[in-house]
Amino acid sequence: MNIQRFVELAKESNVFHEGEVKDIDGIAKLLSPEKPLLYWTMEFYDKDENDIKGGGGLGILAADTRRTAQQLGLPMVVVTPFYTTESHQTLDNFWQKEEHRAVVPGPEYRKFCNTSISTICDTVVPLDVYDRTHGSTRIVTITEPNFGELYPGSNSGDHRLYQEVALGFGGFKALKMQGIEALYMQLNEAPTVFAAVARLDDLMRTEKSLDKALETLRKQILYTNHTLVPAVEGEFNRAQFEHFVYPNIFSGELKEWINGLFNHEGRMKLSLLTIELAGKKSGVSKLHARVADYRDRYGSKVDFEAVTNGISRKWILPKIENYYHISGILNAADFPSNDYQARLRMLDMNTVRNLRKAGRDHLNTVLRRRKNQYGHATIIPQESLIFDFKRRFAGYKRPDMVFNDPGRLAHILSSQNAHLIMTGKPHPNDEMMKQELKRILTLVHHDPILRDRVHYLQDYDEEVGQALSFGADCAINVPIVGEEACGTSWMKDIANMKLLISTPDGGVADVQPIACLEVSGENETESLYYNLEEAAKIIRDDHAYKRELVRSLSAYLPVISGPRMMAKYLQLFAQE
Asked: Which domain covers residue 241, as residue numbers?
């Protein structure tokens, strides 16, 4: 598909509201291999296809964004680090340990060029640049032998800042050497901001003033924020900027302008710098864009446009995706057709059951080769139901909620002939959640019913996430309301005709009231247990199952669409 056809289908599918499409055609015509959309991200997670392992949802989204751009014929260059150390999870008596493996870019990557940055101690820090092309898109990776792992040390550490400077300044120089113009740049979170600083410094060579250069830059930069509040960010001091950042900036005027952004303690969060440089700012769900609390240099609250995340085809069982197309539910660009809701009401449940069985078969294949908490394969009878909790093991996502009453959970699983598969790892520096994981697995071990029916899969990755999306029956998504920016695991579940039990948070809350089994009320744990029992009844009843599928797919197919996300980003770039 070419980009013009994609824009036509987006218009036909009513992706844009009236008055939003004025300049979208102009943006489409401006983009080319020499003037692509540049997508900067500190994390890219596509181990299966591109041999780069990220840490979680941010990297998965970046890979989905590139994959969707390729599908749609959108010229895009993703610029990301290649980390030379990969981290993998292992369990020792239920305690999480990290296994570190040295990695290098594989033979599928070509040596693109050499580039460098400078520090106050080193005039030249050499960097290697590799790339790989997929259709209309390219992946450009910045690395060197001592680049290290993803997210090393503290958020405010020197090596973290070095990696961010290497990506921004080094990546910008590499692209410029190859004749790629930074006409439109999307910054996937604030640590990529040094690409915008490099672009601004470059503009200062031709523009007559900093104000004029800033005016030009702000039309070109979109900052996509995934974090609700800046409190969780690291912050850097002026000495760190003088050591790592300023040696890469030519303009003295620009350095002085950046100096003016440090607070009275001589520190700065990168989100403030990003906010000041980006003329366009987006949050990743309607709720996130509304509640994200960021301030500019004058203390005024920043407005974010809502562009809810979407997923790529990778996460939909191919047989289900094909069914959506042959049934006319999705069009050629994977937008819901204009009559998709009527077509959903014609779902044939025999076909749905066969599709779900194909997903279970895929899951069983993966379970046989992956380790559970005991280091063994997981075997679940075909007739049993499977609930899953698959997401980063973070406090606000509440992986512990389902275990608040172990006896009640054991009764539900045994009486409904159901199993619970959990996966997802705590951050290596999150000692509290590592303790919580050990507590939960110990609790499970000492209950004979739970030990038989609760399975924790080690080293959560794309393969496990995709298999559970394809083959489990119902997903559990219970973040504390107001703390999940978007989430995309739940999108993959909906797309694969699974049931979803969820709190009204993140992207789920784009639809009001939410169109799934809602966890709410004064006693959320009781609500969760009630919905586990309801889900089991629904799945075993064709009429109830179809009703729930039609409800959730009718509401969320437009929300979870990766092409819808891309169209909205183009719309933002088209705005003056």
From this structure: 3-310+565-574
